[in-house]
Structures are given as structure tokens and as C-alpha cells.
Amino acid sequence: MKIVTDMDGVTLDELIDTWDDIRENYDTSDDSGYDRAVLDCASRLASDPGGDSAHVWAIGLAIMAPYLTWLPGDGVAQQAAAALEGADRALRDSACPHDSHPYLSHDDEEDAYLAELLLALDDESADWDEDRPRSEWRCPRNAAGFARIGLDIINPGSVTDVPPRLPLEAKDSISTLSALLHGYPKPWTDINDEISSQASELSRAAPADRAGRLMVVRAVTWYAVSGMVRTKSVLDDLAEAVEEALPHFADADCAHDGHPALPGSGPDAAALGITLSSSGGREIYERGRIASGRNAPLDAVVCPVLMAEVADETLAVLRKRRDELFGERDTAHADAEYLRADGRLDIGKLVERTDNKSWNEEYADDLGLWAARRHGQSADDRDRAVLLLVAHQAMNISYPSPPLSVVRGVLATMRAVAAAPLPAECLHEDEHPAVRRAEFRAGMAHFWAPEEFPPGEDSRSAESWTCPRFAAAVAEESIRDLAGLYEDDELADAS
Do 391 and 477 fall within a single domain? Predict the structure, then answer.
């Protein structure tokens, strides 16, 4: 059977090329012709849903179906779906001699080859390298199967008897979260919105999807509490969503001997959670598990008892880190670490901890806040000079950036220092210490305890270290570095 190849001045080859262009570029192009191409194909299928050419139009709409999940014009997706439903009704019970059909083994990875296959399908002179003969591809029942595949792409889970596939939205989420959780978010990603949206997805998840959505929240929580997120409401959203989900799992029991270990990396954990958040994804997981003989059964992975543990652990992490990052931070414990037995500064420890090395990152936040607070309580000029510099240097070492609870306290001190009256000129002849140079730490130690630490080659006078103009310059630099980290209203009580 040969399909007429010239329709309204457009050849079938040209139509198929257009369909494949839509499949490849639907989410990056704004082509007004996309709607016309879909409606043309839908109209041809609807006009003769049981005709000899139905397989062409059904497969054509399946090729273009991803676009219909994106930004089609009003009513375009509905017309395409109506045409596919009509073709399915007309063709699925047709008599045929085949034991099976290609659609039954067709998955989303093979979508990229449909256009090429369609071009050769009705041209007997074209090369045919497919495992299945042309007759099975042209069979009415196969056309009905591809009509259902198209419907499943447009409305995930709306049909049966087709291979499972992840919704396109789920694929996009996996890609977006993978980039974000690897630390390289896509340029258009709003990190706060992306993480908060996972809380929203958990809150509105259907019962069957809830376990998967909780796994996604577990994954993004690790990122959110790392210090990369500087907005408290994001952690609030995550905690609230987990609190709402917890009662659904709290009273569960099970007969499992044990539960599988869930992925320990954020990207892997998020991908698994998103996969298990749709019926198609859950079927893909189980099929893959059976085929490979690896991984735990689905019922053990989404077991309510395991999910209760996940919810408890995730909520505990969120609450603890939310308090640390945004609440009032206790630094009383730092006295024992940074003061000598006689109550004087342990200058050796302070010099050691202000070295800009990765192993000092874990101390930086508490050290910086402790130094800033103690600066405001001290009347000793030498102590105040050292404490101001320690607070400044600790903020440079903090990684990925100091939390709001720390920034508030440090900024309060730095703004007070910057606002203090200054002499018209410095009262010393030598230059101010070079804060960012390696010799700074040795110089600070000699300045504070000259009897314990010998002078270096570039030692400065004590007056240069205690100079109000030097202190103001240090404070102003810290203010520039810290003031833009959080919203103005969050920092309001530090001004």
C-alpha cells in the first residue's frame, strides 16, 4: 500500500520532517507553525480513523505529543487527543494475523527514530533494518497502540496496554535537580523556587505518589541545609510539607525483614524519588529490577515504615539546621576554645583558625560570631583590634557562606565600628597591616603578644593595628561582603 505523497502541495517527507523538528525543538523554539502541523495531522486522522493511512497520522501525533505537554495553543492538545482516541476505538479490535506488534516494546528512547522509520515504512524500495516487518508496523492494531502511546504522553497514566514511560515533566525535573544538586544549576533555575516546589509536590501528592515525593524532599533537604540556601522560608516549606506527610506513615507496620538503603547522593536520591512518583515510573522501576535481578522490590522501597523513618530523619535535620542557620546562635562554648585559663585571648589558636584553609571552614561561623560579640564587650584596644580582624577573616573562610544567624551578629559589630567617629588622619607613620597577605597572621600574633611571637619582616607598629581608620576600613569591607547575602528585611535587626 502506497500513501499519496503530495498533499496540499506538501509531501509526506516534508510533513514527517516537520513532525520530527517539533519533537526535537518543542521546548526551545517558539514556532507558530507547530500548532498548524498538529492540527493538520489530527484532522487527517479524525477524518478517517480506520483508514489505510491511519498508522501514519497516529504515529505522527505520537511523534509530536511532547509538544502538546509544553505550550500548545488553546484546544490543540484536546483536538489531538480526540483524534487519537477515535483512532484507538476504530482500530484496536481489528482482525490481524500478527502475534505481537511493535508498539508493545516501544519505549521513549526509540521515539527519536520514529520519523526515519515512518519515511521508509510505505516505500518498499527503501532500506528496512527493523526487526519487525513492515506489515506489523502498518497493522491497524499497531496504529491503535501508537495512538495510545500518544495519549499517554499527553496525559500520563490515562491509558493501558502500552509500555510505561516517565512523564516528560518528571524527566525535566530529574535533569534540573541533577544539575542543581551536583552544584551546577542550569542558568535559568531559581534555586529557592525549585526546592520549595518539591515541598509543594509532596503536600499535594496522591497517596501512591507520596513516598516518591518524600524521597525527593529528602534529597533536596541536604542541599537546602548545606548553607547554599539563604532564605528561611525555603526550609520552612520543606519542614511543613514533611510534617503534613508524617501522619500518613506514622502508624504503619509491615512484614519486611528489613528495608533497603536509599541512595546517599542527592542527585540519585532525587531521581529515584521522581521515578517513584508516577505510575509509569514505578512500573519502569519494577521492570528494570526484574530484568536486572538487582535492587529491592518496590513494596520494600516505598514501605510506609521506611517512609516514617525517612520523614522523621528529614524533619530532624531541617529543624536543627533551620535553627542553626536562621535562629539565635549560641557561642558560649567558644570561650573554652579561644580563651586561655586566665581569661585572655588564646592568640595562637585564633591565628591558627584564621588561616584560610579548608579545614578551618567548620570553625569559621561560630568563631566569627563569637569574635564579633566579644568585640562589643571588650574595652581593651588590643583585644578589640584582634577580635575585629578575627571576625572579618572568619567570614572570608566560611563556606559556602555564613548563615543569617552569623551575618546578623557580625554585621551589627561591623556597622557599629564603621559608624564610629574617626580622626582626620592616622596617628602612625607606617602603613596599615595587609589583611589578606600570609604575613598578616604572624603580624597579628606579634602585635598582641610580642613577648611570645617574634616580629616578622613586615611588622607594623601597635598603633597601626589599633588605628580607628584601619578598623573602619576592615569593617566597611566586611559590610560590603556580607550585606548582600540576605534580603534587607532579614537583616533589618542587624542595622
Answer: yes
